[in-house]
Design brief:
Two copies of one chain form a homodimer.
Chain A: H1 10-27, E1 56-57, E2 62-63, H2 69-73, E3 78-82, H3 85-98, E4 120-123, E5 126-130, H4 135-151, E6 158-167, E7 175-182, E8 189-194, E9 197-202, H5 207-218, E10 225-232, H6 252-264, E11 267-271, H7 274-281, E12 285-294, H8 305-339
Parallel strand pairs in A: 3-5, 3-6, 6-12, 7-10, 10-11
Antiparallel strand pairs in A: 1-2, 4-5, 6-11, 7-12, 8-9
Helix pairs in contact in A: 1-8, 3-8, 4-7, 5-8
């Protein structure tokens, strides 16, 4: 940015700077991103990585030997992940336009083109990555993403999961910002098997980022948004109480009873990745999913294609609004220093 | 096939017919494909489906209302599934050539092009489908695939999972045909949550198909094959005892001890989908995975790209040899009837 700001804006800019510092401080509370060595640098919890001559991020088709990761990714501040490869490409193109970056958004290329497991696009300070469906699929990507951010010496990174979900007592199209990611028994925990033993991890998410996202939704048209618990299951049919799978051994009443219990426990939507995302990214992360149907009213996703496409854009619009606000703070912060 | 066979081949053809009948009888023992109503027709275990006006197979972008499923899929006899979309397209093109079908294999189209969740190719009697990574991802596809085969009134279908895996005490490139799909505690079971309750399902697979596949491998060059147990985990890093994830809290010795226990329990490879595949498809199905490394010797997949590509073709070559044998039986069976 070349222009100088005028003095009347200086007070406002200082206020923005203070907000920025307060905001970024909240990200540093994460277990994954503690202040150790480098301030707010992305840290891994694995001492073995320091002694490895090369780290091959197999499922991303990247490696510390064949790629200059700090040069490629060192300026990343926001990571957005979602299940569908097409949707994450569309998001990358959308945020490119929203941030008014130079270059043609239609010409962005898939950084992981050496593999078809995931796709990845970098747009200024934003990384957009697909993760497939279910906890195991996103977990492989998150291990390699966190190592990538660590090797690239990224600092103060915020992560968002943008997804679709089944709503519990909400009108289709409602966006749910996750307060707690809970398991099938409505507990905010993630069970992980390590060498044959089951351990339990917390799935807390950042309350401040969640309420900031709710605030963002009120600044936008047509993005009905609530904060609520998100239930994460390992199965789309029996695990979510659907009556229309290849296997079903329970009644319509049994299903409704389970959904009512979930609702009473604060669950407002059901998806398949939030617990491991929260467990691995913790308080520097948010989960933002739109509901495609109200599960009290049915199991099949019957809305017309164009309606579903519009619903799926809502988490993208909300998160991009959030990112844009921070990005503008940051730009004004740079201007402030150039002014002084 | 227009030509008549000569009488000297007739005895051999009758023998082939008997083999075919014996072979296809073994498929009918499956829990999913019992002799009910239609002989050996693919059956679902969900009475609700009969009363549904439309069944939208959402993740396959197909529906009973918008697609004529019996016409599109009624002749399917073999279903091959695998994680990678590119690999399953390559398999479809490969089996097209192997079965010497008419048309250009380069021109096959993705039946699920309306979605990027899975891809699906039909080549004569063979369906080739991708399923992504992990139990939840393959489980969504299997629910919708089994419903698809049911709606299409398919009969006597055999299912194969073709995949990659980590080897346990085997040279890289070895193909493992699964005897039992076991969980992290080496038990042949799959835990499924239904309405918040954990139930356990058996993961038995067809022994005869497995031993027939072993026989096939002996008829081929350079497809080293063993029968062994396959451990299915929900995580690639901590769950499989890898030391190179973003999180690792155990030692090299702890890892080796776990792998030794797995080896002693008959585990010869580790992957991420076999238990739910076995639980849902049972005795009409086989799991055939190549090992990309020996986990006793490391965690990272370091072989050169061309070596890995060649390894990944091995399950495809083995299963296509198996399919070709049955397909030729079937063709000769047709000839036998036209002769009489």
């Amino acid at each position: 940015m070349d222009e100088k700001i005028d003095a009347s804006n200086k007070v406002q800019t200082i206020q923005m700077f203070i907000n920025l510092v307060l905001f970024s401080r909240s990200f540093s509370e994460s277990n994954l991103f503690p202040r150790k060595g480098f301030q707010n640098q992305v840290q891994v919890k694995n001492p073995n990585l320091e002694t490895m001559e090369e780290d091959i991020l197999y499922h991303l088709s990247l490696s510390t030997k064949t790629h200059n990761l700090p040069e490629m990714f060192g300026d990343i501040k926001f990571v957005c992940v979602g299940g569908s490869a097409n949707r994450m490409k569309a998001f990358a193109q959308f945020i490119h336009k929203e941030l008014e970056l130079s270059g043609n958004p239609e010409e962005i290329t898939d950084i992981c083109e050496g593999t078809d497991r995931y796709c990845m696009y970098k747009v200024g300070p934003v990384l957009s990555i697909s993760h497939g469906m279910g906890v195991p699929s996103i977990s492989i990507m998150l291990h390699e993403l966190i190592k990538l951010l660590h090797h690239a010496q990224c600092q103060d990174v915020v992560l968002f999961r943008l997804g679709t979900s089944g709503g519990v007592g909400l009108a289709p199209g409602t966006v749910v910002v996750t307060e707690k990611a809970v398991d099938y028994s409505f507990q905010p925990q993630f069970e992980q098997v390590v060498l044959g033993k089951v351990i339990t991890r917390s799935t807390e998410l950042d309350e401040e980022v969640a309420s900031e996202l709710l605030q963002c939704s009120s600044e936008l048209q047509n993005i009905p948004t609530v904060i609520g618990n998100t239930m994460c299951t390992h199965d789309f049919y029996e695990g979510q109480g659907r009556l229309d799978g290849a296997l079903c051994s329970f009644s319509h009443e049994d299903k409704l009873e389970y959904l009512r219990k979930a609702y009473d426990a604060g669950v407002r939507n059901i998806e398949m990745e939030s617990t491991v995302f929260a467990a691995m990214c913790r308080v520097c992360a948010a989960v933002v999913c739109v509901t495609l149907l109200n599960r009290f009213e049915g199991d099949q996703i019957k809305s017309p294609h164009d309606v579903l496409v519009e619903y799926q854009q809502r988490p993208q619009i909300l998160v991009s609004h959030f990112i844009k606000k921070i990005f503008l703070f940051y730009q004004q912060f740079v201007v402030l220093f150039s002014y002084n």
